[in-house]
Design brief:
Blueprint lengths: L5 H10 L11 H16 L10 E8 L2 E7 L34 E3 L2 E3 L7 H6 L2
Antiparallel strand pairs: 1-2, 3-4
Length: 126
């Protein structure tokens, strides 16, 4: 069964994680996404999932990448999905009722650092 609100909740969860650059960088959000993928894979029942590879890379001090490889059944072209996990600095100018990591929903819109670039997109492509 499809959980139609999963992407919405995931986007909120991602916005709440500080991944600012410079600042916290991607470590926290990378670990969150990795745990989420592992949890989702554990709920599936297929022997093909044993071949899935999850690799974490610290490409620079404090700068993290995550690579998940799902082997195909043929030599046909593959899909590569790439997105960044960092955001710009949290910055000034946020209202008290919409803090940068608050993931505030108002009038069916999500507010917070990274809501439209790139955390919302990450959530929609799970």
């Amino acid at each position: 069964m499809v959980d139609e609100n999963f992407a919405r909740r995931l986007a909120q969860d991602l916005v709440k994680i500080d991944s600012s650059d410079p600042g916290a960088y991607e470590g926290g959000i990378e670990h969150f996404i990795k745990r989420l993928i592992e949890k989702q894979l554990a709920q599936l029942d297929s022997p093909a999932l044993d071949a899935v590879q999850i690799k974490e890379f610290e490409v620079l001090p404090g700068r993290h990448n995550l690579m998940v490889t799902v082997p195909g059944l043929s030599d046909e072209p593959r899909l590569v999905y790439i997105c960044h996990m960092d955001t710009v600095t949290l910055g000034d100018g946020w209202d008290a009722d919409t803090p940068p990591l608050g993931a505030t929903v108002r009038d069916d819109k999500l507010y917070g650092r990274g809501a439209c670039d790139m955390k919302g997109s990450q959530a929609c492509r799970r």
